[in-house]
Amino acid sequence: MVTDTKVALTRAGQHWCRRKSVLYGYWWVAAKDAAVAAAQERLKYRKSVEY
């Protein structure tokens, strides 16, 4: 009975960790995309000011 609970907890923990890493991965990609977009906007703005 105790081992069943331990196994269930371990599985839940692994699942949660995997989900967390997936969410973190998405967050990282989104942050990178936002940074790239912001840099592009800044470049556009700088060019429009120069010309």
From TrEMBL:
Could you identify this protein by its name?
A: Uncharacterized protein
